Amino acid sequence: xxxxxxxxxxxxxxxASSILLVIDVALRVLAVFVxxxxxxxxxxxxxxxxxxxxxxxxxxxxxxxxKAQLPRKRREKQRLVNRLMHERAEEIPDSDLDQGSPSWLQxxxxxxxxxxxxxxxxxxxxxxHIDYDLTIEEMARDIRTAERSVNAVFYTMGLxxxxxxxxxxxxxxxxxxxxxxxxxxYWGSAGHRRPYKAMxxxxxxxxxxxxxxxxxxxxxxxxxxRPDLRNHRKILVIDGKVGWLGSQNVISRDYDKRSNIxxxxxxxxxxxxxxxxxxxxxxxxxxxxxxxxxxxxxxEAELVHPQPDTAGELECQIVPSGPGFVLENxxxxxxxxxxxxxxxxxxxxxxxxxxxxxxxxxITAAGRGVDVExxxxxxxxxxxxxxxxxxxxxxxxxxxxxxxLYEEPYILHAKHVTIDDFVTVIGSSNMDIRSFLLDMExxxxxxxxxxxxxxxxxxxxxxERSTRLDLExxxxxxxxxxxxxxxxxxxxxxx
Length: 495
Prior knowledge:
Transmembrane segments: 12-33, 45-65
Number of strands: 20
Shape: globular
Largest sheet: 16 strands, mixed
CATH architecture of the largest domain: 2-Layer Sandwich
Oligomer: single chain
Number of helices: 20
Main location: membrane
Subcellular location: Cell membrane
Pfam families: PLDc_2 (PF13091), PLDc_N (PF13396)
EC number: 2.7.8.-
CATH class of the largest domain: Alpha Beta
């Protein structure tokens, strides 16, 4: 024993170094075979680079964060939901498009139906709202008309001075016997501790059933689960008759964060108030999220209601997306629309870190004469995404894309796309890898030219508050700034 200990003492450093070297080499070799499997080339290269440089850190991180899939139990629920939704969709025909609609719009409808199993519905009305505080007031006003149910899922919810009346309306509804169901993303809400706790206390006092969506329980499913898969949707449905959908959360405009208040940051949003048959489809999408968190399957008869108001003229289709689906539903829709555009594309997004397919679709559109415009914030609330986004500007500007930078200190958090004079997509989805792969998103595709003037008016407001980015000025930015942007671009590919 003494001899063995003496040998270890004499050769321990060499032995440890040899063991680390073997592990180092083994991890690098293993990564070459494991990482690229069913992964985008850009993402695979980024992961491989991280593992090759820091194998003892990079490979464990890959095991924790390398798979964009829901936990096993949630995947089983998702498969059940997908099957039920597709069976239902087979029995419901799509509404007819306007005669003046382009042929490619029917292809987009078919794509969405095959991916998300939601039909195209007609006779809908949509009104846009861009005043942050007034939007919360209007949602509260609709909640006060509720007779049967209020269903809501928001990425961030909190009770503060701005949202107090919203929650009072919810409490009043529950007190008079209306069924109220609330979901809020755990990560998106719990980080705002004071309004989050105040909200939970309020909901409990009124006996309202509520759940944090996607709670972080790394080992609850028998194996480590990726913690950054989030429910990023923003949906409110009252009685299955009135719906709200868009980019805005239910919290004060500065998100009750000291750093935002210190910097003077304020969020600018676009929300859609919707009536017509599509609201029942929104209710069904909410029901899938409710099932994930509560284990309760809501009856279709409780969710789908005959619409008293079918005077609208818009065709609408819900587009759900997220890690529970086989493909990236939102990305495929955006790419299809960008390649179909003949005259004009306007993209409004707070976070623009596109996939290669989306980047090429926009560059190709500009190259064939389509007027392509990107409206984004001049300042960013997220360091990595903000710098990664900037790395794409020169390439887009060279291709002929116009880039508008929304005025500081506002964060343009609105998320919508218009194609020619026929199609709008509005919802919670950003134009970045997170929204395509990791976040559960809700988008609404609106067909027809009748709605386009509302969108053009909103785009005009955002354009008036923006400054157009000049290529030569952008090229003169400091070398260190460009290098930081490029590094963040590479890091953003690690998903």
